[in-house]
Amino acid sequence: MAFDGTWKVDRSENYEKFMEEMGVNVMKRKLGAHDNLKIIIQQEGNKFTIKESSTFRSIEIVFTLGVEFEYSLADGTELIGSWNMEGNKLVGKFNRKDNKKELKAFREIVGDELVQIYIYEGVEAKRIFKRG
After folding, report:
1. What mean pLDDT do residues 27-55 have?
2. Which residues neighbour 123 within 8 Å (Cβ) at sequence distance 6 or greater?
3. Cα 16 to Cα 112: distance, rounded to the nearest angstrom
4. How would you classify residue 68: left for phi > 0, otherwise alpha for psi between -120 and 50, otherwise beta?
5. Which residue intervals define the domain Cytosolic fatty-acid binding proteins in the entry (predicted)?
6. Beta strands 47-53 and 69-72: pairing type?
7. pLDDT given at position 18
């Protein structure tokens, strides 16, 4: 599948502002902007296994498209929601457990890059990954 492989973060746009809107403190925002995130994606039909490793943590997430699951961000923010496939794009809709506000996430292959977009409270951030 198109998403399969190892991806390393190459650059980010508006990521610090996004983290600020999410309530991440200034020290974690500074560290988060340089987290050296690497993700490994494996897709088998509707089932995805994603391994994330960064300066802060290494985790494995397994989910099935359309099936709700719980997930914690690197800063400890707890979410519940699901991913779905819309065309060639992975679309995630999650709600924070603490304030019920929605976090949207999109993953799409553009050229030879994986583009990941987050939207929270009107603030949009983009992280671009290259195969690694």
Report:
1. 92
2. 14, 17, 18, 21
3. 25
4. beta
5. 5-22
6. unpaired
7. 96
Long-range contacts, stretch 39-43, CB < 8 angstroms, 24+ apart: 39/6, 39/7, 39/114, 39/129, 40/5, 40/6, 40/7, 41/3, 41/4, 41/5, 41/7, 42/4, 43/1, 43/3, 43/4
CATH fold for the domain made of 5-131: Lipocalin (2.40.128)
Contact 89, 76 (CB under 8 A): no
SS (HEC) of the chain: CCCCEEEEEEEEECHHHHHHHCCCCHHHHHHHCCCCCEEEEEEECCEEEEEEECCCCEEEEEEECCCCEEEECCCCCEEEEEEEEECCEEEEEEEECCCCCEEEEEEEEECCEEEEEEEECCEEEEEEEEEC
Say which residue the tokens 């707890």 belong to.
78
Tens digit of each residue's pLDDT (9 = 90 or more) over 46-71: 999 999 999 888 999 999 999 999 99
